[in-house]
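Cross-posted from the bioinformatics board.
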Amino acid sequence: MRRLRSLLAEPLLHFLLLGAALFAVYRRVAPGGESRRIVLRAPQVAGIADEFRSTWGREPSAAELDALVESAVRDEIAWREGVALGLDRDDPVIRRRVRQKLEVMTEESLAAPPPGDRELEAWLAGHPDAFRRPARVTWQQVLVAPGDGRGVDVDGRTAAIRAALARGEPAVSLGENTLLPRRGDDVGLDLVARDFGPGFAESLGGLPLGEWSGPVASGVGLHLVRVERRTPASMPPLEEVRAAVARELEADRRRRALEESYRRLRAEYDVVVETAPAAGAGE
Amino acid sequence: MNPSTSSEPRSPGALLARRVALGVSIAASVALAIAACTAPPAPRGPTAASASGAAATAAAGAAPVADAYPTRVWWGDEHVHSGWSGDAGLAGTILSPEDAVRFVRGEELTSNTGQKAKLAQPLDWVVVTDHSDAMGVINEVRAGAPEFLADPTSKRWGEMMKEGGEAGQKAAREAVTAQANGRLPKPFMDPKWMVSAWEKTIDVMERYDEPGRFTAFIGYEWTSNAVAGDNLHRNVIFRDGGARARQVLPLTTFQSRDPATLWAWLAAYETKTGGKVLAIPHNGNLSNGRMFEEKTYDGGAIDRAWAEARARWEPLFELYQYKGQSEAHPALSPTDEFARFELWDTANLDGVAKKPGMLRTEYWREALGAGLRLQGSLGVNPFRLGAVAGTDTHTGLSAPIEDDFWGKFPSNEPSPDRWERVYKKEQSGYVRRDWTLGAQGYTGVWAVANTREALWDAMMRRETYATSGPRITVRFFGGWDFVDAEMQGPDLVAAGYSRGVPMGGSLRGAKGRRPTFLVAATKAPGGANLDRAQVVKGWVDASGKQHERIWDVAWSDADRRRPVRGKVPPVGDTVDLARATYTNDIGATELFAHFEDPEFDPRQRAFYYLRVLEIPTPRWTAFDAVRYGVKPTADVTMKQQERAATSPIWYDPA
């Protein structure tokens, strides 16, 4: 009994048993003599050289090409031996790659002819928000006070600035110092929103033209605002956004095709998902 | 007193800046005739002629419809991975490069963990930088096949491919074009003929690049980890469109891990295609001392040619990203009380522990100083690095936003326990958890138009700045004769460009004058107020020793914040962790300063950069705690002071 136990603890025995097991597996899965042949065809070798050329913009030297070819041979041998040992199975990297490849393949194989004008027009009409040109304004502003004007006599300052404006002083010389644009010429409200905040840009849409309004609160401070001119938001004609419309339509098409393809494949499988036994059940 | 301590501002400009920040003066200037958005380029003064060509480049790079000089900052992320990066795919990222672009354009997507994700504020540009290693797994099949012989086009391509070389490439390009136009011959619809991942990435960028509206750069990441996890990664960004980028395949580290090899590849690309390309190193903090080591990759001595190549191809450095900041480290800058910020300084990428001495060659500020020193010995400054930031997201979702942080990998997409999940167990035994990820950062680019060409040119001349996320607007100009009155918004920009250089530029030949600087910052609209603006100076003395000094040049609440022993006291803290909120009761909406270096020595090479800090705000971990009702442990950082740091302005005596 003791002898058996010490024999079982013997590393040499482990080694031999492991070796025997590996050998048995190997015998069963190793490729036969004929498949122990690796042929790199001329186009493949040319492909290796091409890749080098694409990367470096010059011809590989003979030594470089030899090394690359040898590396390809090594890849192939490692792949065959590894697969024979089942190293590809249950490997999350490989599974993820295979899924990616399959999905890209599916996308490619479902490629439909480019959409025609009618389809594009319909898409544009159906998704106006994605293509609408923002309203534009020509306007100017005077910063009355930073922030929410707390601790500042906002009314007093507003009155003083309005009086100065009434005297004909240029707006650009009035108010608090600021890096914000003091005026904009036919500028999109989307850009105004970036500088002043979305709420402020929106409020420019409702101010009376040609007179000083406010103070209006922005994301930076309180402003007197004068809108000179307003061009409403507009839908561009298809000719001006054709590429973008086609891109959106095709992206949507690809997404749907991929989902549809998965749905069909899944329907061909009998999927059983076993739930874990409830706590306390079983042993 | 420590020589590096920030001191009370000595210039009248800084004092005036306090008044402006305080808001006591309704500063009215008589010289505000020019509005920034419509200003013509002012004539260049005599001093500008002695400066570098940075400002001149700004004007020369303008497209016909573009402004004379940059009037708008364009926001973007120079570092985004999709599921096509091997490690991202392994981690469960399924979003593609196309998804990544659509997300930053403001579209709502379903995240990798099935949650709805949408950016509140879209970006102006992006670079999708999937790892080149294993990117091309979806390879073209080049070998001929019988079914092609039936179709004339297929047959011709098949023969060209068999021929190999240029003909083979031409066939592949033709096939790619046909594929893009949906005109592939039938046999090619066979999935075997899929184009490579690189080609597909280029296709996506071409489709989404809309000059003037949104810029989608073609790029990739060259991911050298030296021998074991020493981060020497570079983001490669092309100025060009697909016609040029398709002529090459990205460099992989299977070919080499030596950055000099990448520089050679970049040079080969430009020679071959006539195009333009640059590289951005990142995460010096995880390089275990190798990012800015003063020797070649193989340990040899560096020389002028090495320095020239590095300076030529790497004009920028990534300061902030999810895996920590590489701007400055408290151990290297002990008097910088703001350097203790989003630090990942325990190990390299593989968890190999950091040893003493490694920090010195990992951080940007130290490297800027080393560059000045090396300029003395090599004749060229290899580390003339401007400032950019990105996320390095591996989820396809670029979201360096505290209250909308989507994590680096799918495992740290929003969930109640993400803060405590193990990111990595490091060699030292330290268990790094996901809460140490920082929700940062973005790059602001001052460019004359939102196009690949204009943005790339601005990156090349370093007219860029890094932020930890908030879209703070920052202006920084250096010149020889700026005056206080020029702190006025529109004046400042016009004066800055006409008589000085913007961030990223150089001043040369003092001729008895001192460098003067114009500083302005506006908080992110609707965001947190600003605490202070600082000028960070680094220089090298006659013995080659590096020094640094930080001046607070403008700050908020000046009536109650008098400098104490040379330091402006903390701004205060309005953060309410119980609700993950703050108020703007403290801080300033805008800061302005005119700064003149009081310690200027015309014989010493120097750099100056501007850093602007926000008031304290809740960190993403605080938003998570409130959103999910969880209580992170006491070691978890829950608030922070977000910031922006500009590219330096260099002074060179020669």
